[in-house]
Amino acid sequence: MGLYASYSRYILPLIVYFSMILLYWIVVPFLQDRIGVGYYTWRGDVPDFGPMALLFVMTHFLGILAGFQFKRISLSHKEIPELRFSFVGVAFILALLVALMAFVGFETIMLPRVEQETGEAQNYVILLRNIAKILPAFLVAYFILEADNGLKKNTRVAIFILLASCLLILSNPVNTSRFLSLFGLFVVILTYSIKSSRLSVLAWLLAFAPAYAITLLGITSAMRSGIQKVDLTRAFQSLQSLEFSSYSIFLDALKLDSFSQGNYLFSHLFIIVPRAIWPGKAESIGIYTAERSGYVYNNVGLNSFFNSYADFGFVGLFLFSMLFGVLAKNLNPTFELASFRNRRFMYGVLFTGMTPMFFRGDLSTAMLALYPAILVYEAIRFSTRFRLMSGVR
To answer: pLDDT over 70 for what percent of the chain?
Structure first.
């Protein structure tokens, strides 16, 4: 119902969100119930969907609906200038990208994910690595939206090949977490589809994502070991792995009587605050749940909205869901001017692209991708104000 209502009104963030619910909480559990799962140490089936889970989902949906009842926030209508494509801005960002890669290590593009020595990386290192991984996608988005302003055809082709190559080399499912690499691809597809007025096709593809996303996510999951190890058998087997444990970890978390810490919501919303400054910052709620529910590995993602429930019960869940509804209404890029300088449009693209991460969780992981995405967009937006001819805005 929610998916159809979102599709009929072209509300892209909610189309993506309800597609994720259909995929992870309906289609995947249906299949797992028949083929079994391999992420428990003591059982091989998925938990039952009980009354508490139903109450959680209904509260969540009602919160989103309540948030959507608020009027759309009206911003001052400043004219968005059409600036010529900025070579100097793009060159500066590419130089910054090389510097970032030198700092975080070139093994993040040379080696598959399973062979990268990440260990217990500090949050600031993860933040910088994510910035480097996200940068190429936003450069391609800038090119798609602004290449018509002053670039000749041959120049456009050359720049596109350069930027697209950076995206494919630096941020692909082999060397980058699949949700982060797919986020970059999603940003590019969204900007191109809206810029080229292919909105109906885009909405249709997003609404029917569960039909093909299982195979896509399975293949990108298998890519963590290298492209040569990808096959349909391995992709199918991922359905039984932790990659598709979102439904089970959610139900297992609901069964816990209490949690070891409080303040999960704000600790994860502001995950970038160092623990030296905030000693009481909560650890991952997904890890806590996995350790007490018999999972073979504790690095699992728990739905981001569960943090609000763990801290404040159903009231917190309703209010946090309502905030999501407000954001979905205000950050829908569908009917905004498709310009890189239009913050409302680009933040809508960013928010829509981040929605799968926020659904699957956990919240801290999503925020460690959201903050770099905002920083990357603002850095490119600022840098591309400058032109080689005048050196000024």
So the answer is: 91
The token duo for 186 is 């999603």
Q: Do 187 and 345 touch, CB atoms closer than 8 A? A: no
What token pair was written down for 222?
Answer: 């298998």
> What six digits make up the tokens of 11?
């509300």
> Which of 65, 8, 44 lies closest to 240 in space, CA to CA?
44
Answer whether 184's CB lies under 8 Å from 136's CB.
yes
81 vs 153, residue with greater confidence = 153
Q: Using CB atoms within 10 Å of the CB of residue 344, give its burial: 0 to 12 exposed, 13 to 18 middle, 19+ buried.
A: middle
What per-residue confidence (pLDDT) applies to 138? 96
The tens digit of pLDDT for each residue in 167-188 reads: 998 888 888 888 888 899 999 9
Q: Per this entry, what is the length of the chain? A: 393
User: Average pLDDT, stretch 76-83?
Assistant: 70
Q: What share of the chain is helix, strand, coil (3-state, %, to 5)?
A: 65, 0, 30
Range list of H helices, 223-342: 232-237, 246-255, 264-269, 285-291, 306-330
In angstroms, rounded to a whole number, what is the distance separating the alpha carbons of residues 249 and 307?
A: 13
Q: Are 335 and 329 in contact (CB under 8 A)?
A: no
Residues facing 295 on adjacent strands: 40
Contact 130, 118 (CB under 8 A): no
pLDDT per residue as tens digits for the range 128-144? 888 999 999 999 999 99
Query: Residue 13 in contact with residue 354, Cβ under 8 Å?
Result: no
Q: Is the dihedral of CA 230, 236, 237, 238 positive or negative?
A: positive
In three state form, how does the secondary structure of 85-103 look?
A: CCHHHHHHHHHHHHHHHHH
pLDDT classification of 315: cutoffs 50, 70, 90:
very high
Whole-number Å distance between alpha carbons of 97 and 277 = 29
Conformation bin of residue 361: beta by default, left when phi > 0, alpha when psi is -120 to 50: left
Site of tokens 């917190």: 316
Q: Quick check: 71 pLDDT over 90?
A: no
Give me the residue spans of the domains in the chain.
1-393
User: Is the C-alpha dihedral spanning 113, 120, 293, 300 positive or negative?
Assistant: negative
